[in-house]
Amino acid sequence: MAGSREIEQTAAQWLARRDSGDWPAAAQAEFEAWLARATAHRVAFVRLQAAWRQAGRLQALAAGEGGVPARAAWDEVAPPRAPFTSADAGADVGEDRDRAAPPRADALTFQPRREPARASRWPFAAAAAVAVLAVGLGWGWLHYGATERASYRTALGATDEVALADGSRATLSSDSRIEVALSGARRRVELAQGEAFFDVAKDPGRPFAVEAGARRVVAVGTHFSVRRDGADLRVVVTEGTVRLESEPVGGHPQPTTLLPAGSIALAGPNGVLVRSVAVEEAERYVDWRHGFLVFRDTPLAQAAAEFNRYSARKLVIADTAAGELRVGGNFRWSNAEMFVGLLEQAMPVRAERLPDRIVLHSR
Known about the structure:
Blueprint: H1 4-19, H2 25-37, H3 39-54, H4 74-77, H5 93-100, H6 122-144, E1 146-153, E2 160-163, E3 169-172, E4 177-183, E5 187-193, E6 195-199, E7 208-212, E8 215-219, E9 223-229, E10 232-239, E11 241-246, E12 257-260, E13 263-268, E14 271-276, H7 279-284, E15 292-299, H8 300-308, E16 314-317, H9 320-323, E17 326-332, H10 336-346, E18 349-353, E19 357-362
Parallel strand pairs: 5-7, 16-19
Antiparallel strand pairs: 1-4, 2-3, 3-6, 4-5, 6-9, 7-8, 8-11, 9-10, 10-13, 11-12, 13-14, 15-17, 18-19
Helix pairs in contact: 1-3, 2-3
């Protein structure tokens, strides 16, 4: 399709040709066909024809020599003629003829067509920048913006269950503390002290990591507990699988250990020791959530240490013989006095009760 400039040039040629008087029937037919070919043809021709009339019948043939003028430009090249007066009667006939004659087409000059003002690109650039910034902030918020940042702790002799923002639940044992930092990209919990059991909501896109010292336990959706005892760490898995990771030692990477349900892992300075037991037995290690301590052929020294995690009045083993005695059964961790009473009745143990502790002697 021809451009607007070319159309106007053609329209000007048709106008000039028709005005010249050389207009046979074939030319009329060809002209009408050109008009019917496109609405733009008709518009261009009508516009030129109107300009022609406004200019006092100037021969608007300048389309091929600088373009067709804008409507306002015609007045400048062809000012309105003054009306004929009696004073003109004595004028030279030749001069009058010259004034009446139409100007030559090659003498016409036209004001250049004004280019439409270009819209400033700054508003679009600013809008684009704002959109990019909004997308960036949204992405950053999604991945790094905190959805929950909280600290939870329990007092000595108390447990507590807390609901996390991602749908997971954490049960804190006695005298424990966790720092929770959840975002759109990851879930991180630091076990600062004590023990906690985690019921992790499934979210494969956001692994749930529990950090404790130089160790990290990573899960996607499972049940497990993590317990800190100084430099040692104990992980008990009762459902699903977790991954136990360790920080490099001396610049050497440490192996990663996968722990399926029924695993009891003890991690210390010398490495990681894993025991695989029945899930039911693994669950005994986390019965503290229901108020019980469960012992199975457990040394008395170890049983006393478990009670001491829940009470300010400590059980103290007075001699090695007493500490090596084996105990078994389910005991409420909130009632150490009853446990000591049973020891005195069933085992060769003598209890020395003091205000801040109970000393256990062998008999």
